[in-house]
């Protein structure tokens, strides 16, 4: 996000001290970027949600149908995008609720495809066909169900 030109990033973690450490490390690489941490509950979290353009779940919550208990998606602006890096199931409980709420969603298989493509490039020196990789991944995920 920082490399893509985000103006501000707020990291929220169940353990706020971990978010603070990550913020400190990121500021070394992006000193001009506004990077903050916030606890994942309470008035500050509510304020963060109300001004968010993008919410990304980077936890394993969502795998095997697990869900966030009472996550306040309704506090996000209607223009916000909800992304989940979990790719199985493709439509996690978080994404299902976000979609029902009218929010735009982004599934996790794209991140997996592009991580794999980068690894392939680093190991072989050749850039793979990411569209083919995505089709094969989606076909494979359908068989897992």
What does this protein look like?
By secondary structure, the chain is an alpha/beta fold. The protein is 43% helix and 19% strand. The chain has helices at residues 16-29, 43-50, 93-101, 109-124, 130-144; strands at 8-13, 34-39, 54-57, 61-64, 81-84, 104-106. It has a three-stranded parallel beta sheet with strand order 3-5-6, covered by helices on one side. Strands 1-2 form a two-stranded parallel sheet. Helix 4 crosses helix 5 (130-144). The longest helix is centred in the last third of the chain and has 16 residues, at 109-124. The model has no long low-confidence stretch (mean pLDDT 92).
- Could you tell me the number of beta strands? 6
Beta fraction: 15-25%
Secondary-structure-based class equals alpha/beta
The number of helical segments is: 5
Question: Could you estimate the helical fraction of the residues in percent?
Answer: 40-55%
What strand order characterises the main sheet?
3-5-6
Q: Characterize the quaternary organization of these chains.
A: single chain
Through-space gap between termini: 31 Å
Radius of gyration: 17 Å
């Amino acid at each position: 996000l920082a490399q893509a030109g985000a103006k501000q990033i707020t990291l929220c973690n169940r353990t706020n001290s971990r978010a603070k450490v990550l913020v400190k490390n990121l500021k070394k690489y992006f000193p001009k970027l506004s990077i903050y941490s916030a606890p994942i509950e309470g008035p500050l979290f509510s304020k963060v949600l109300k001004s968010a353009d993008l919410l990304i779940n980077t936890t394993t919550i969502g795998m095997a149908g697990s869900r966030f208990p009472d996550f306040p998606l309704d506090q996000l602006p209607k223009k916000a995008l909800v992304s989940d890096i979990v790719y199985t199931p493709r439509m996690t409980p978080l994404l299902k609720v976000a979609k029902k709420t009218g929010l735009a969603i982004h599934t996790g298989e794209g991140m997996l495809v592009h991580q794999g493509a980068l690894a392939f490039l680093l190991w072989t020196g050749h850039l793979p066909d990411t569209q083919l990789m995505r089709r094969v991944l989606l076909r494979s995920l359908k068989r897992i169900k």
